[in-house]
Amino acid sequence: MKTRLIALDLDNTLLNPQKEISLRNELILKKVHRYGIKVVLATGRPIKGILPFINQLNLLYKDDYSINFNGALVTNNVSGKALFSQSIDKMDILPIYNLAKQYHFPLDIVSLQQAYSIVELGKSSYEDYIGSLMSFTNLNFTNLPEQNYYKFVCQDVPDKLDNIVSLLETYDNLTVVRSRRDLLEFLPRGTNKRKGLEKLLNHYGFKWSEMIAFGDEENDEGMLQSAGIGVAMQNAVPRIKEIANDTTASNANDGVALFLENYFSNNL
């Protein structure tokens, strides 16, 4: 089956430990893109947070899209218009905010253009992780604007997140997923990368069997299971390696490029 789309998680998959796309990864992805294969960044980050990578890979054809907020938003890379959007509001966040007050864990809440740190819960390192690509405002939950949000997160040490996950078993109005061992994401109910990619595949008229997907964490599970070829990084969590069709080298060792160079050695 001909490959028509490559979907790539960013952190700990395409990005190396320095949070960069290596030259080797850049060159092979630009090459397949020039040959007409869609290259889609599928990430928990907002579109503002991935624009440098979109530009680096020249994913700027008029019908190039990205999967943002783990599938809550499918965005055209050029126009910024949404092909698909699913959001939450302040009232959806309130039950988890009350839980966070009780059990003392931080929350950062993300809209399309802005992130908010809820200061009475304590400041996490999420702003440092995102860096200067998105503006952060420190405020109390009472002052959080009434608007659409696409996710909110808790960044903390993995053991503490394990305990938080156990507290959430009775909360079913949101999708809760780990995008890194130290980052727990709260999303609109039913949101995942697979759902966002399904909208995009329908837009293109492509089949799941025509897609290769790369990932490392539990938020990548659906897209790897559905793809014609699901590839786990060597540094992936055990569950992702278990469900993937293949495993490549780690993100520190250009695993994406290594797989694609071999796969397309006689096809480009």
UniProtKB/TrEMBL annotation:
A Pfam family this chain is assigned to: Hydrolase_3
GO cellular component: cytosol
GO MF annotations in UniProt: magnesium ion binding; sugar-phosphatase activity
Keywords for this protein: Hydrolase
EC number: 3.1.3.23
Coiled coil (UniProt feature): none
Entry protein name: Sugar phosphatase YidA
Organism: Leuconostoc suionicum
